[in-house]
Amino acid sequence: MDFTLTEEQQMIQSAARDFATSAIQPIAADFDASGQFPAETIAQMGELGLMGIEVPEEYGGAGMDPVSYVLAMMEISAADAAHGTIMSVNNTLYCHGILKYGTEAQKQAFVTPVASGEAIGAYALTEPQSGSDAANMRSRAVLADDGSHYVLNGKKSWITSGPVARYVLAFALTDPEAGARGVTAFVVDTEAEGFVRGKTEPKLGIRASATCEIEFENYRCPVENRLGEEGEGFKIALGVLDAGRIGIAAQAVGIATAAYEACVGWVQERQAFGRPIGEFQMIQSKIADMKTRLEASRLLVLNAACAKARAKASGGRYTTEASMAKLFASETAMFIAHQAVQIHGGMGYSKELPVERYFRDAKITEIYEGTSEIQRMVISRMETGLR
């Protein structure tokens, strides 16, 4: 497969790299330390088109392709994974879901302000008792007698951008007896009565990407804000997660790239026993393994992005490609970040250098949008047809 980038793809990659280097990289450590949401740089990303890269221009986006999206994600995440997380949720879990399954009115109302950066979108599937077992949800949505709205009750957990989001793509049971087939999707306006934000979670990594629990307390959701038909929510959730996994795979490549590049510079400069440590065979072995896995991850992500582009044209699926990219890239990010700390020795454990942040940030890529264990299960089932 030819992965030669088009001129347009090179432009978005270059623009994202320039912004990441000049605007994000200098503030990344401070925002990681404080856990504060980086509202100013996120707004600037919206102005650059980075918060809705694949969204058509008529809905406030940049109107570009999936490869452009992953290229930009890699650059932003190499500077700071927290910015990458916010960007990923906005682009894939939120905007992509409404673009794919929403009505024209829903696209105009709920995609345009988010893709343009005027507002932030979020995605609410996980609940306190159901992480990987997403079908085991307890949130309920009951249609009012007059059919004008649904009343939502329930709690969602680990909602990225939850503390700051204006709109949330949320899932609740409209038919509890039907299990996964009874799940329905809704677009929730967080400024309406009955939407409650919980405390911001104190996380190990990606600390500047605000995360919290949210709760629905007799929240009245207009029926026109239902996404798709009743009972289609689980299908929508899984379809959206395919796109989300490609975004997280690209984020993982960004983290891994930053950690790897830090190592290359370090082993050339760091002296031990009178020579650069990069001359020692054990260090050379680590560098070789890191580089090989990094490039393999990059190619898997580009392959998944191309599969997504083909699926948009044909209506097919790209589940296997997305899960393979997410699985391998996330585990590669953790491997390279781990090796980076080891190669840097005591300084790798210090906050004076960014490699300890890369280590903390890398871990989450093996967990959200489906754990590595879930990715292996998905890939196996898609290949064998066995459940």
UniProtKB/TrEMBL annotation:
Transmembrane segments: none annotated. Keywords: FAD, Flavoprotein, Oxidoreductase. InterPro entries: Acyl-CoA_DH_CS (IPR006089), Acyl-CoA_Oxase/DH_mid-dom (IPR006091), Acyl-CoA_Oxase/DH_mid-dom_sf (IPR046373), AcylCo_DH-like_C (IPR036250), AcylCo_DH/oxidase_C (IPR009075), AcylCoA_DH/ox_N (IPR013786), AcylCoA_DH/ox_N_sf (IPR037069), AcylCoA_DH/oxidase_NM_dom_sf (IPR009100). Residues 231-381 form the Acyl-CoA dehydrogenase/oxidase C-terminal domain. GO terms for molecular function: acyl-CoA dehydrogenase activity; flavin adenine dinucleotide binding. Its EC number is 1.3.8.10, 3.13.1.4. It catalyses: 3-sulfinopropanoyl-CoA + H2O = propanoyl-CoA + sulfite + H(+). It comes from the Bacteria. Residues 122-218 form the Acyl-CoA oxidase/dehydrogenase middle domain. Pfam families: Acyl-CoA_dh_1, Acyl-CoA_dh_M, Acyl-CoA_dh_N. This is 3-sulfinopropanoyl-CoA desulfinase.
